[in-house]
Amino acid sequence: MNKDFGSYTLSYNGEKTMYTYLGAYVSSLKNGIDLRKERGDRAIKIYNFLRINHFNQFDSLCSADLHDQLKNNTRLFFRALRIDIVSNMLMPGDFEIANKKNWPMFDSIKNGCLFISAWQNVLFTIFIISSIIFIVAFRSFMDQTVFIFTCISWVIASFVIVISGVSYWQNNRFTVICTPMVLINMALLIGSVRNKVIAK
Predict the structure, then answer these.
(1) What is the DSSP string of 129-144?
(2) What value does the CA radius of gyration of the chain take, rounded to a whole number of Å?
(3) pTM for the full model?
(4) Does a structural domain hold residue 84?
(5) Residue 59 DSSP symbol
(6) What's the N-to-C CA distance of the chain in angstroms?
(7) Most confident of 28-32, 121-125, 136-140
(8) Which residue in 29, 130, 173, 193 has a CA-CA distance of 20 to 30 Å to 106?
């Protein structure tokens, strides 16, 4: 990255996403302008930097914008972050499938998949909150290994949740990857408490 782009970094995607999504949202809330227009203007500005390989200017632009948002628009920044997180965790995954074989039940199956996708996202949120309550309420009944695994899982899931707020309209793209971990986590928690209760 340093040889080709002049910077020791793994990716420019974080700064780009922060600038074009969260930064655009904060700016839109502050100035009362259309969010799509603000995001489009920012995307064009970034594209112009990247097109001519001015990565240092791109870096400076994104860093200066983030610093400005945090310093001068702190409340709006965290409001936009919260709105993004909530919408990403409650929206279904969106997808399009072509019905090339003209299956008669295609629309029903597709709508069913969208319904499941929506509830997967809602249940993910419920399971995260439930696991925290469970840890607090039944800590004394838990196996130490299960407790540590649960805490690590919760930190990972929380990190994913917070990171999802950097961009909006992502549906369940972020949370779906953690859903199996959260389900296993809940099963281990319940099983651990049940075994301790039966043993006593």
Answers:
(1) HHHHHHHHHHGGGS-H
(2) 22
(3) 0.67
(4) no
(5) H
(6) 58
(7) 28-32
(8) 173
| Longest alpha-carbon distance in the chain | 69
In the structure encoding, which two tokens stand for residue 194, read together? 């049940």
| Residue 77: C-alpha distances to residues 26, 27, 65, 199 (Å) | 6, 9, 11, 50
The model's pLDDT over 48-86, given as tens digits with 9 standing for 90+, comes to 776 666 666 777 788 888 888 888 888 998 998 888 888
Interatomic CA distance for residues 162 and 86, integer angstroms:
10
Q: Which two tokens stand for residue 74?
A: 């702190």
- State both tokens at 78: 């965290």
Phi, psi of 174 (to 5 degrees): -85, -50
Same domain, 54 and 129: no
Query: Looking at residues 175-185, what average pLDDT do you find?
Result: 77
Report the percent of the chain where pLDDT is more than 70.
Answer: 83
Tell me, yes or no, whether 141 lies in a domain: yes
